[in-house]
Amino acid sequence: MKQRVSKTNNFINNKFDFILFTVVIVLLATGIVMVLSASAPTSLAENGKSYTYAVRQLGFAVLGVTAMIIISKIDYHIYKKFYWPAYIVSVVILLLVLVPGLGSGANGATRWIKWPIQFQPSEVTKVLLIIFYAGYLADHKSEVTDFWKGFVKPLLFLLPPFAILFFVQNHLSVCIVIAAIVGVMMIAAGIRMLFVWGTCGAGALGIAGLLFIMQAKDSGGFRLSRILSFLDPWSDPTGDGWQVIQSFYAIGSGGLLGKGFLQGTQTKFNFVPEQSTDFIFCTVGEEWGFVGSAILIGLLMAFILRIIYLAERQRSDFSRIYGYGVASILFFHVAINIGMTIGMAPVIGIPLPFFSYGGSSLWAFTILIFIFLRLDANRLQVFS
To answer: Average pLDDT in the 93-118 region?
Structure first.
């Protein structure tokens, strides 16, 4: 009898959070449906079939679920033990875009690795840096109240990946998102808020300086026009403001309940650029309306809050800090992506988690979440 109780307790203590798992599956399935709707015009024009992109997204999701199963079998101690190798790989994989025959890109930015499958190394770097900072901050928790050791020193580790992202991949937006994620993780580790507010001010000045440098290098005025189109998209309605304006029309035309699946006119006739990737939310707004969009946003916010709840019940510093890293990357991606489609944020190429077409971000979010599920399943076993 005692042995049976012990086995039962062990099963309960090592059980995945079923709520979080279910929401992931629901989001994956809904995302595939929306990719089908948003990509149908483009897919039909390219190869005569409306479902090509949706089938690919389904394949990405299957690979993601396969990764989930593999992750569930890995000893959870490994994630904390190998945080330094994770950091090294996060930098090396960004440099691979410079290898002839591997890197690919457009508009002067090399952001993709095209062998054996095409993916964005920056998405992998996000995952690895969250693992690294969770491990580093947990191992140096006694130093977090010290300005130099607990604040400045951890931020210095961002310099190598940021230098590559900024100067090689021309990806300032990813730098900003990663910096925000690391900031949340440092707060979760117990850093003094005075340091955070001071850094926010310095960061704002730094970003302004970087934008000035980028603009000086931008002979065609591309970045300046992006900023101006964010402030007033109607100043260039047929140029840089076109994407946001068409998104306004799409979301606004959805009304209260939407036009119905595959019935959107703005998206059906391909008026919105990138409507299956970065601007897929406008498809949701047009077809599902205000009610459907509100339900989706509510589901995503509940999902993030669930992760925060699970993070707070962790006994391990590593698991808790990691959980806040996962919650923050989801929050920033959701907030920025939806903000782009409704004119509340500049267009910077941030995908909507589980919805935007593409394997890189889908795999990154799936892996992040299921590592956390693995950690949560063993939350009663504190890391040594």
So the answer is: 78
Return all residues near 343 (Cβ < 8 A) that are at least 6 apart.
230, 233, 244, 247, 248
CA-based end-to-end distance of the chain: 31
Res 3 pLDDT > 50: no
pLDDT of residue 8: 39
Instruction: Work out the widest C-alpha separation in the chain, in whole angstroms.
Output: 77
d(CA 353, CA 87): 23
Q: What is the pLDDT of residue 113?
A: 85
251-303 pLDDT per residue, tens: 998 899 999 888 888 877 778 888 888 899 999 999 999 999 999 999 999 99
CA angle 176, 181, 187 (to 5 degrees): 125
